[in-house]
């Protein structure tokens, strides 16, 4: 059985805060277990790492102003998106689909104003989410003597479907994919395409345990211990499809 519970009592996070200390203080008695998975919304990490921009300090360039006029967006916000973008894939229907410097393909390069401290601030993705996950895991090990796996997540849209799901953008101590290709199904037929995105499925499941407006950025998931590893592992890299195999680029 897999269970997910939101951690209560986390304060508003500010630049320079230590996520490990904040989360350790919010852990229920006896938690976490070494086989648990701590799922953390990236904004907690981004705020602590100072990954924010003040729009009043942004000077949009010509490309940002052109896109903003077409999409009816704030040109300063568009400039921040471009600054976080490795390649712009699409700009339509009020949305910029961008490939971030990390290799993620998502709306607005992950730049978001929700849960920002004020109307002049936007929040960026962590600079190196896998490294952030590893630091958080190491900090929890030092503070609590236990190192659960750590996922850092964001909400992404999906091709062909409405709505968003949380996915992993940073990972430590978890095998992110489970490859069933070559195995047999219940009837003995060979599985040829079954490659389970463990990290993303846990991220999405954890998101159901919190309310979006309840300031619950950290979720403790139990029951997925067979996917937890002592080494920090490869991060989220294995989840990213190679450009030559991506039919949407």
What is the global morphology?
A: globular
Termini separation comes to 38 Å
CATH hierarchy class name of the largest domain? Alpha Beta
Main beta sheet strand tally, sense and closure = 5 strands, mixed
Q: Report the C-alpha radius of gyration, rounded.
A: 19 Å
| Spatial strand sequence of the major β-sheet | 1-12-2-8-9
Counting structural domains, the number is: 2
Task: Tell me the number of strands.
Answer: 12
Note the run of SSEs as H and E: EHEHEHHEEEEHEEEEHE
Report the CATH architecture of the largest domain: 2-Layer Sandwich
Sheet-strand content, in percent, reads 25-35%
Would you tell me which CATH topology of the largest domain applies?
60s Ribosomal Protein L30, Chain: A
Low-confidence stretches: none
* Class of secondary structure makeup: alpha+beta
Q: What is the overall number of helices?
A: 6
Write the layout of secondary structure elements.
Blueprint: E1 3-6, H1 19-26, E2 37-41, H2 42-48, E3 52-54, H3 62-71, H4 75-83, E4 85-92, E5 95-100, E6 105-107, E7 121-123, H5 129-144, E8 149-158, E9 161-172, E10 178-179, E11 195-196, H6 198-207, E12 218-222
Parallel strand pairs: 2-8
Antiparallel strand pairs: 1-12, 2-12, 3-7, 4-5, 5-6, 8-9, 10-11
Helix pairs in contact: 1-5, 3-4
